[in-house]
Design brief:
By secondary structure, this protein is of the alpha+beta class. Helix content is 27%, strand content 26%. α1 packs across α6.
Length: 413
């Protein structure tokens, strides 16, 4: 199953996978962001469905905003939602081959194809070169004000690591897809404010159209919250017997010392009468998570990557701090409050889960060491209990200072 990760930013002056400088001389001439207030809506899907009905390739990044389903107290969660559509340009990669769509930037035509993530590095470098005045966005602490959004699949790793596989590629989607979105509707649930932010590189005709498209009357009229229909029974791509036999062999590999961990997965499939956007709306309701996303796949109508993840894979702050928060150790919650607390305490003491969490922390420290400054890598929190709507998790936090010659694409690689 392909996986999607997206980058949630802390400050406006950071591209989703790059970083901007905070030091800006206000007397210099810069192209400025255009920032317009919008009506605040408690349900960001009203904006999303309004946009999706009128513009191509609609995208939304959502956070968990319901306090009853987000009980972790260690850090703020669920402040912003980001909605956009109609990217200026976008690229897809298949087995290292890159296809460009939309208004392809001039620098892309001059670059030699050196691989998916190297191309992404070049795009970020070019995007950060122009002087843009982000002061208005910084003032309102907006998390996004134009930049790249998209996904990387698990199979992208095959471009960089020689992996044997006996499985056919039976889901034909790009290994990587990123688009440059020149505008966004941003919902701030903490301050109950909404903003339309328009980057100087946004198409001028689209920029003129957006304010009227996002009026309150438009949103309430276009979105009726349709969620009828349910998926049918889910089926696995392996039989129970095959799964059991494979699991037994894996245990033998581990016990004999041939490996220390194997990610053994199975795919579940189902049919539904709902559209992709309707299905996302329904799943978002039952699985609210800090990293929800709907990302369309270009060229395949109604195909999309959906994320309902509690886990932050990678974050890069404006100051160049790389952060990863792996989850290892999970226990299902109980409706009985006392039993639920006992389950959480047992998880925090379980030696298997603690060992697995520590293992992934060591792996990430090693990976960060390839692109971060020597001596900067620290484990800020270890085995932290975080509670979500349906499960308890053990989460650790690893940080490091990215070397100045790298950007977010290098960190991801």
């Amino acid at each position: 199953m392909h996986s999607m990760q997206f980058f949630q930013c802390d400050k406006v002056h950071k591209n989703p996978i790059g970083r901007y400088s905070e030091n800006m001389n206000s007397t210099q001439q810069h192209s400025a962001l255009k920032l317009l207030p919008l009506p605040y809506l408690a349900d960001s899907l009203q904006y999303f469905h309004t946009i999706a009905a009128q513009l191509p390739m609609p995208l939304i990044l959502q956070s968990d905003i319901t306090t009853s389903s987000a009980t972790c107290k260690t850090e703020p969660r669920g402040r912003f939602d980001v909605i956009s559509a109609a990217p200026e340009y976008w690229l897809q990669t298949h087995n290292g081959n890159i296809d460009w769509y939309g208004c392809t930037p001039s620098f892309a035509k001059d670059k030699i194809n050196t691989g998916s993530l190297s191309t992404l590095h070049n795009i970020v470098t070019e995007m950060l070169a122009p002087d843009v005045d982000y002061s208005e966005g910084i003032h309102h602490e907006l998390p996004f004000c134009g930049g790249l959004m998209g996904y990387c699949s698990y199979d992208l790793a095959r471009e960089y690591v020689a992996l044997k596989s006996s499985k056919p590629k039976d889901i034909d989607i790009p290994d990587m897809q990123f688009g440059f979105y020149g505008w966004a509707c941003i919902q701030d649930h903490t301050h109950q404010k909404s903003w339309l932010v328009i980057h100087p590189q946004c198409d001028s005709l689209l920029a003129q159209r957006l304010p009227s498209l996002l009026t309150l009357g438009n949103c309430l009229e276009k979105y009726a919250g349709k969620q009828e229909g349910r998926p049918s029974v889910f089926f696995s791509n392996v039989t129970k017997e095959t799964y059991t036999d494979s699991f037994t062999r894996i245990q033998e590999y581990v016990n004999s010392g041939d490996c220390y961990q194997i990610n053994f997965a199975q795919r579940f499939s189902s049919e539904t009468l709902q559209t992709a956007k309707e299905l996302y709306t329904k799943l978002r309701t039952v699985m609210p998570s800090p990293f929800c996303a709907f990302i369309p796949i270009y060229g395949t109508p109604d195909n999309a990557i959906m994320s309902f993840s509690p886990e932050r894979f990678i974050q890069l702050t404006a100051e160049g701090t790389a952060i990863s928060q792996p989850i290892k150790g999970t226990a299902a919650r109980c409706s009985d409050a006392q039993k639920d607390q006992q389950i959480a305490l047992a998880l925090q003491k379980d030696p298997k889960n603690l060992a697995e969490n520590l293992m992934i922390v060591d792996l990430l420290r090693n990976d960060f060491g390839k692109v971060c400054e020597t001596g900067s890598i620290t484990v800020k929190r270890l085995f932290e209990l975080q509670t979500f709507a349906n499960v308890h998790h053990l989460v650790s936090t690893i940080e490091g200072q990215l070397k100045p010659e790298y950007n977010g694409a290098d960190l991801l690689q």
